[in-house]
C-alpha cells in the first residue's frame, strides 16, 4: 500500500475536483502533455537531491527510501508513491514545501493559488 502525491505544471488554478480528475488521467496515462517544463524538472532534481529514486539505490539502502516504486514522470508531471512507514510524513512535508516556492506566483499581489479549494 502507498500514499501517492502528484505534482504537475498548470497555467491556472484548478478546483479540487479538476485536480482529482487530472490525477486520474495521469495515472491512466491519458492525455499527458509531451511538453517539458522547467518548473517540473527543477522540482524533480531537487526532490532527487534529497530522496533518490528507489530504482537507483543499492539493496542495503532500500529500507531508508520513502518510495514504494519508481516515480511516474514526464516533463509535465511527477507522481510519487510513498511507503506507509517512518519517512512518510517527512517526505510528504518535503514535497509540499518544495512545491510551494516553485509553483506559487512570485508577485504577492497575484491571488492565484495552487488549488482554488484548499484542503480542510
Report on the architecture of this protein.
The chain has about 120 residues and is an alpha+beta fold. The chain has one domain. It has three helices and three strands. It has a three-stranded antiparallel β-sheet with strand order 1-3-2, sandwiched between helices. Strand 2 and strand 3 form a beta hairpin. Helix 2 packs antiparallel against helix 3. It is globular, with a radius of gyration of 15 Å. The protein starts with a strand and ends in a 17-residue tail after the last helix.
Short key terms for the protein model shown above:
3 helices, single chain, alpha+beta, three-stranded antiparallel sheet, 3 strands, globular, 120 residues
List the helices and strands and how they pair.
Layout lengths: L1 E7 L7 H12 L10 H13 L21 E2 L3 E7 L4 H16 L17
Antiparallel strand pairs: 1-3, 2-3
Helix pairs in contact: 2-3
Computed CA radius of gyration, to the nearest angstrom = 15 Å
Number of helices: 3
Biggest beta sheet attributes: 3 strands, antiparallel
Instruction: Give the low-pLDDT segments.
Output: 105-120
Mean pLDDT: 83
What is the domain total for the residues?
1
Question: Which strand order does the major sheet show?
Answer: 1-3-2
The CA-CA distance between the termini, in Å, is: 24 Å
Shape field: globular
Brief digest:
With 120 residues, this protein is α+β, with helices and mostly antiparallel strands.
